[in-house]
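Bumping my old thread because nobody answered last time. Still need a sequence for this structure:
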């Protein structure tokens, strides 16, 4: 009898973590490596948020809390949804977890039965399909390609929905592409959902405040209020507040769903870190001036990377509306041979050879469900980005 669960065969380790780990190993071995795989800001957590965490420690707020969040944080989350999205939620409609990933996982575990389908636009965050599989569901991945700027169309959504569909997972601005859906584009999708009342919507709004060039973020339940009763609106403090390590994600939705998610969490991790919760209260209620300043830096870095990548023959890089990623198409590089002798048959071949020959670590597109592409996180210094893109240019120029 095998010792390990058959469930493990359904999933694979996170490719983004694997790339980051490989880059760290090469650095430790003395290689000059520029790592562009990690999806986290290089900014430090703002001082007033850090101070709130320190204050929580000094005041002895280091014990167990309610399973899915302290009252102060739930109130702050309700205020945030009202202020930013025009959505009214009560505290008993809010769940707080150890990061956005746990929120999504709890919801899927609480709702999916064997064979239930979940529509996932591709490219997608690497964890979506695997979390669906772990919960016993079936990921239905729909490719949104370069010609639609990596955005799902209403026709594609309509075609993907079946009687077995339980959820649509919706992420805007997107990881890995940075593409953001306009209100008109989102309205067209919600019109489809209104024709299918058995389909629920799970949003991933983690990059809400990382929006550029006048792009106005909106979320499904805000655009179509009639979806409110079957939407789980998910967010967190990791990205815009530079709090990835604090591990606080949250969601609001129908009370019955939130209660079920609380039950799952009570038998897994129990409450999120108490100190992080008090820091998150300050993040949501305190000054947000730093976000605009950080976004100015992100825009500068994005423009640098997009310009340098689009100067490469065989590479096409759209300008993203938000987040801190670009997702260039490398169709023109497939079929060529790298200077080191590697035949570039896939985007994974491209990224492996790039790392080995020029010391630039990026994540291959197949990990996100759409090829041939790769993802760059430009949440690092201008100097590192310029050097990395210079190396990518040299690598591509040497392809034959």
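Sorry it took so long. Here it is:
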């Amino acid at each position: 009898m095998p010792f390990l669960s058959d469930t493990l065969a359904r999933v694979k380790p996170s490719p983004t973590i694997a790339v980051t780990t490989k880059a760290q190993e090469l650095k430790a071995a003395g290689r000059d490596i520029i790592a562009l795989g990690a999806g986290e800001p290089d900014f430090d957590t703002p001082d007033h948020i850090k101070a709130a965490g320190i204050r929580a420690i000094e005041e002895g707020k280091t014990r167990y809390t309610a399973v899915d969040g302290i009252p102060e944080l739930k109130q702050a989350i309700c205020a945030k949804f009202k202020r930013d999205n025009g959505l009214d939620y009560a505290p008993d409609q809010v769940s707080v977890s150890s990061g956005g990933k746990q929120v999504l996982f709890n919801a899927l575990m609480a709702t999916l039965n064997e064979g239930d389908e979940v529509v996932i636009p591709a490219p997608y965050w690497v964890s979506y399909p695997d979390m669906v599989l772990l919960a016993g569901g079936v990921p239905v991945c729909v490719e949104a390609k370069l010609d639609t700027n990596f955005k799902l169309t209403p026709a594609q959504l309509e075609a993907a929905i079946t009687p077995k569909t339980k959820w649509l997972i919706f992420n805007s601005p997107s990881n890995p592409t940075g593409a953001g859906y306009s209100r008109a584009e989102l309205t067209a999708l919600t019109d489809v959902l209104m024709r299918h009342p058995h389909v629920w919507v799970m949003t991933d709004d983690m990059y809400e405040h990382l929006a550029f060039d006048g792009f106005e973020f909106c979320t499904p339940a805000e655009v179509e209020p009639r979806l409110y009763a079957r939407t789980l609106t998910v967010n967190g403090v990791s990205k815009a507040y530079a709090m990835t390590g604090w591990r606080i994600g949250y969601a609001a939705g129908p009370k019955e769903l939130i209660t079920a998610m609380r039950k799952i969490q009570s038998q897994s991790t129990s409450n999120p870190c108490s100190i992080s919760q008090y820091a998150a209260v300050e993040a949501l209620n305190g000054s947000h001036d730093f976000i605009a300043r950080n976004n100015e830096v992100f825009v500068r870095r994005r423009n640098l990377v997009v310009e340098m990548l689009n100067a490469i023959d065989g590479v096409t890089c759209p300008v993203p509306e938000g987040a801190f990623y670009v997702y260039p198409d490398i169709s023109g590089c497939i079929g060529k041979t790298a200077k080191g002798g590697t035949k570039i048959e896939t985007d994974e071949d491209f990224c492996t050879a790039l790392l080995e020959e020029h010391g630039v670590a990026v994540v291959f597109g197949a990990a996100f469900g759409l090829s041939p592409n790769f993802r760059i996180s430009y949440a690092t210094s201008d100097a590192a980005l310029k050097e990395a893109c210079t190396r990518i240019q040299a690598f591509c120029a040497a392809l034959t």
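The chain has two domains: 6-44+290-397, 63-285. Let me know if any region looks off to you.
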